[in-house]
Amino acid sequence: MFLAVYLVINTDGSYGCSAGSSARCCLSKPPTQSWLMGHLGEMRSTEEGLQVVDELVRNYKHSCSWFLGPFYSLVRFFHPDYVKPLLLAPASITVKDELFYGFLKPWLGQSILLSNGEDWSRRRRLLTPAFHFDILKNYVKIFNSSTNIMHAKWHRLLANGENRLEMFSHISMMTLDSLLKCTFSHNSNCQESSCEYITAILELSDLLIDRRGRILHHWDWLYWRTAEGQRFRKACNVVHRFTSGVVQERRNQLAHQGVPESHTEKTEEKKKVVDFIDLLLLSKDEEGHVLSDEEIKAEADTFMFGGHDTTASGITWVLYNLSCHQDYQERCRAEVNDLLQDKQTEDIEWDDLNNLHFTTMCIKESLRLHSPVSAVTRRYTEDMTVPGDRVVPKGSICLLSIYGVHHNPEIWPDPDEYNPMRFDPENSKGRSSHAFIPFSSGPRNCIGQKFAMSELRVVVALTLRRFRVTPGGTKVRRLPQLVLRAEGGLWLHLESLDTPQE
């Protein structure tokens, strides 16, 4: 997998454009320890790797260039004024590069995450209705149910004297449980017992991280001959068999039972909750064409891949940040208790979400400080202009650092401090629209961001109503893998709150 990158190094160590172009990129290149391997050793999925990004942001303010071995070059951006034109570029000239996204194809196929051009545009049009508010309202019931299962398990553990829990593993199983119900209407009972499908998804995620860090494994002809490559194929087969079986079964049901009633029809009759698979099976483009079984399988696998770990990471870090700031935690708890005090149910309903003002501010500040996804990468089929009349030549790999933007001291004073008041409406005035981009931005932003934010608010609100969380007693070191985790897990102490706190 060799990618053509049309950049040349100027004598001052900055990048200029390739021969034949009159413009100059003028992007600084940090010094390297190896002329051959370049900055490869500095791209680490560790706490120290994030500290390298902090140093780049302090020294270079908005952008710089990196070499990864003798084959790849990256143009890194970490200022909102620079990432904005790149993220808002038309989808017709924006391409997902093979270096970072190509490893996903055996698992996710040619899904919306990996497709480009008109194929991507068609899929985006077909998938957008699946994330309509009327659909998300039904998913909120599932978020409540899966959270209740997790909390019941926590109460049992507390009753047995276990009050220090590794949060990511519990919350990841809960978000997987929710997604299986939202995607397939499938009750896996995965929060209580393991299953082959869940095990395969977790193994695929680990193997992707392992492959990214081994440059020789970037070449398919070598990787598929390794033990890791064979494990990846085996896990892919497990996931694909499950998804294919569900798609075929549901298509047969539709053929025999007819189209289920839509939530959006205005009638007083009770409606069947249509899950993600049903919505894909019923989708048609402008010419009346439907998605094939292979396309549906790819989108369902992508929804499962993109929706469980990212949301689990977001929820876990919110609880961690609130455990370290008891005043903010108590304020969130009071807001939730006020919201639910006169209701007959403990459930957070769709209409409640917009009333969780301070809780949402705390969630957003956690997504800034601990973004589940640290960066996205893009290539462009045309030269791209960024501030200062700098030109990024077409074909270059652009790494748009979400972490770097969110920790840029020029945009966020005291960027390592957790301060939810940054997201108070008064304090947000005048801030760049691209200073906060946890779900990316532009035409290729995260299609599921409203789904994720809804789940985040439901889970955090219910958890704070029922439990007090305090730090787990060990130093937390960040671990940026496919999503942001913590080395050795993220441990918190839980205290059950039997009655709402005043």
UniProtKB/TrEMBL annotation:
GO CC, one annotated term: endoplasmic reticulum membrane
Protein name: aromatase
Family, similarity comment: Belongs to the cytochrome P450 family.
The enzyme's E.C. designation: 1.14.14.14
Major subcellular site: endoplasmic reticulum
Keywords for the protein's UniProt record, in alphabetical order: Endoplasmic reticulum, Heme, Iron, Membrane, Metal-binding, Monooxygenase, Oxidoreductase
One Pfam family linked to the record: p450
Gene Ontology MF, one: aromatase activity
Species annotation: Umbra pygmaea
Protein location: Endoplasmic reticulum membrane
SUPFAM superfamilies for this protein: Cytochrome P450
PANTHER family per UniProt: CYTOCHROME P450 FAMILY 4, CYTOCHROME P450 FAMILY 4 SUBFAMILY F MEMBER 11
Domain of life assignment: Eukaryota
Physiological role: Catalyzes the formation of aromatic C18 estrogens from C19 androgens.
Sites where the protein binds heme: 446
Catalytic activity: androst-4-ene-3,17-dione + 3 reduced [NADPH--hemoprotein reductase] + 3 O2 = estrone + formate + 3 oxidized [NADPH--hemoprotein reductase] + 4 H2O + 4 H(+); testosterone + 3 reduced [NADPH--hemoprotein reductase] + 3 O2 = 17beta-estradiol + formate + 3 oxidized [NADPH--hemoprotein reductase] + 4 H2O + 4 H(+)
